[in-house]
Every structure is written in C-alpha cells, then in structure tokens.
Amino acid sequence: MDKLLVRGQNKLSGTVMISGAKNAAVAVIPAAIMAEDICVIDNLPYIEDVKCLNITLNKMGVICSYKDKHTLKIDSSNLKNVSVTFDEVRRMRASYYLLGALLARFKRAEVAMPGGCNFGTRPIDLHLKGFRALGAKVEIDGEIVRVYADKLVGANIYMDTVSVGATINIMLAATMAEGTTEIENAAKEPHIVDVANFLNMMGAKIKGAGTDVIRITGVENLHGAEYTIIPDQIEAGTYMIAAAITHGKVIVKNIIPKHMDSLSAKLIEIGVNINEGDDYIEVDSTNSKLKSTSIKTMAYPGFPTDLQPQIAALLSICEGTSMITENIWDKRYQYTDELKRFGAKINVEGRIAIIEGISELSGADVEATDLRAGAAMILAALAARGETTISAVKYIDRGYEEVEHKFSQLGADIKRVSV
Ligand code: EPZ
Question: What spatial distance separates the first Cα and last Cα of the chain, rounded to whole Å?
Fold first, then answer.
C-alpha cells in the first residue's frame, strides 16, 4: 500500500500537462472491440483503470498491447468470448460498457457487475432499460448481468435521469441495431462526444452527441480506426484548484478551456485570476483574497460532481460561509470527515454541505475514501501548515497519472512511500 507524504504551503508555479480523459478512455477502449478489426487509441492516461481494461481485453481474447504508455493497439479480429466475469471486471465501475459493446457486436454478453467508488448506490437500471428498449432480454444472476437478443431494433428512449454511463452504453448497443434510435434527455459530457466521434470514425452514424437528443442510425459492421482521446476535464480542474488553494500561478496545459467554463467561473467568483489560451488556462492566485461562494453540482455543462470534493477543500480556506449542493450522488460527502482532520469546518445535511472558511489548514493523517476524495486530500495537504500523510493512494492512481511527479514539478513537496 502506497502513501503520499506532503509538506504544505509551497506556492505552486509552472506548467502542468494534462493527460487524456479517464472517463473517455474507459468507454472508448470497450467500444473498440465492436469492430472485427484493429484500433489504435492514443493520448490515453497511464492510469490503473486503463491498465485494468488492457488486462480484461486480453483475458477476453482481444490482442491488446501498449505501443507506448499512452497508446493501445486493440485487435479484436478474433474475439469470440462474450463472457467477462473475472476479477479485473469487478474492480472497475466502467466495466459495464463491455455489456453494450458485446451486445452490439454479438447480440449477447455476460459481465460481472461493476465495482467502483463507494459513494452511494451505483445502479445500472437505466442501462438495462435502454437495452430492453432495443429488444434485448436482461437477466441478473447474482453479480452477473446477462443480456441477449435475436436482433436489436432501434427505439426512442427517454432517459428518466441524465446518466453518463447509460447514455454511452445505449449509444454503443444502438450503433449496430437495425433502424434508428433516439436517446432523449441524454447526458452531454465531453466524454460522450468523444465516444460518439470515435464510433463515427469506425463507421457508425451518430448525430447530436453533446446535446440532449442523440440520433443513431444502426449499421451492420464497424471497421478499425485510429483515435486520440480528449484531455481530462477533471484532472485539469484538480490542478486549477491546486493553483488556487496554494496561492500559486500555474498554467494548466493541453486542455479544452471550454470544458472548464463552470469551474473557471467559480474560481473567478472566489477571487482567482483566470487567463485562457487556445489549449491552456493560467490560474493566478498569488495575490488573491479567497472569498466564499455557493456550488451546485449538475450534469454538464454545470459544475461537475467529480470536482465537488476538490472545490470543498478550496472553500475550507475561503473567507465566509460557502454552500455545496450535491445533486448527482446521494452519498458523496464521506471525504468531509477526512477534511475535518485538517481543521476544516464543514457541516453536512443530506445533499448540502456548509463550509465555514478558516485562515489555515493543519497537516494531518488522512485516507483517500475514493478517487476524487483522494485528490481533495492532496489539495488540502498542499495548503496545510506542516506534514500530511495520505493513505489508500491506490484510489488516486485509478484516475491521476503520475500524480506526485506532476505536483512535484509544480513545486509541491510531495513524495510517495511504499508501506
Ligand atoms: C460517470 O459515472 C463517471 N464515471 C463518474 O465519475 C461521474 O461522477 C458521473 O458519470 C457523473 O458525471 C465514469 O464515467 C466511468 P451517471 P456514471 O450514470 O456513468 C443515477 C469519477 O470520479 N443512475 O451519470 O456511473 C446515479 O445513481 C467517476 O471519474 C441511475 O439511477 O454516473 C446518479 O445519481 C466517479 N441509474 C446519476 O444517475 C442508472 O442506470 C448520474 O449517474 C445510472 C445512473
């Protein structure tokens, strides 16, 4: 088990290069197996979730290998196996995309239910509702989800809840269904557009991704493609907040600034200077007097729930009383107990967190309770007086490539120790 040791109060400065988007990668890689062909995906983040998918695909009979640490070559020409029930699959929430991909190509699949973070129930009822709407039968046998169909037929599907995973999974299955599918009330996250763009490069006919109505005209087959995934909006946001919380000046590079609009607007409200370029944002908090604000997490283009723990760390040192409303997940405040160890003053009532800003956090021994909570612990540690130890770093490694190296390059006093 690795730990991170951080000595706080260094002002971050310099440039950080953002990696490819985890939540695009974990959908694009399964989509690649829909073609009886070879795909090459680059700009992949070198993170545990992608390494886990590489192992999973090879165990399925796909010939998948790293051309370099950011590029996977995926040869699904000889894929026959539609049963995916080994351990790697249980470790990762996004394994459910294998259901949609295998159902599209083989009209049947069985996948072990996904694992993933522990903030509240992680249902997949909307995924399964979409598969049924396309003509598939669904069976749940303990941890195994089985889906099968004589054929898939396009349908009009209205999403009860805006769901990233369900939107992507239904898009995968509908890509090779007969006729046209319309997904209404679809999620609009950048990674959904990325998956649609990749599928279209493979010969799919998908229109409207990024809006709340996605139209898919089914095709018989897909062919291989080479694709570069988009930069990670959440990793970028994490480093933007790191610059703010340490009163630093950082250029967050290799990003799509538009994807960061909701965070940039909030950082400006808090009193941080934001300068946008074509593929970077400069965050300058050197002379900022950080002020409280209120945050409501919403589906894109609203404030992303995956930056909620990180912004809470920043708000704990913003003067005044801040409020966060978490509208996506019903239990995404476990990390606040850990944040309190730094001296933060946070009160949680259901989906609302009230934060009284304090002048200074103090170093503490804390644990990463999930991926983004772990990121929030690093941010609090960077701002805190004294030394912090962060355990359960494996969660952070799921979504942040070389996290201690990237922060060290910005001047943070952070190192990884293996315990
Ligand atoms: C994706 O999860 C992300 N994960 C999550 O990021 C992110 O928090 C979430 O989208 C929201 O943006 C990946 O992309 C791998 P949802 P997903 O379906 O698809 C309810 C991270 O840190 N819902 O958009 O599972 C659900 O309970 C991770 O990178 C149903 O009710 O999220 C939630 O309240 C953490 N039934 C809401 O919808 C379903 O069938 C949004 O969930 C599916 C979802």
Answer: 5
Two tokens at 227?
A: 């694709």
Q: Are residues 139 and 166 in the same domain?
A: yes
pLDDT value of position 281 = 98
CA dihedral for 65, 66, 67, 71, sign (positive or negative)? positive
Q: Name the token pair of 144.
A: 């195994």
Low-confidence ranges of the chain (pLDDT < 70): 114-121
d(CA 399, CA 247): 25
**What 8-state DSSP symbol labels residue 231?**
B
Q: Does the beta carbon of 306 lie inside 6 Å of ligand 1? A: yes
Can you tell me which atom of ligand 1 is nearest the CA of 126?
40
Percentage of residues in the chain having pLDDT higher than 70 = 98
For tokens 């704990």, the residue is 316
The CA distance from 270 to 419, in Å, is 38
Residue 115 is predicted with a pLDDT of 62
> Which stretch of DSSP H or E encloses residue 249?
strand 249-253
In the annotation, is 318 catalytic?
no
CATH number at residue 405: 3.65.10.10
Which amino acid residue places its CA nearest to atom 19 of ligand 1? Answer: 165
Q: Are residues 178 and 61 in the same domain?
A: yes
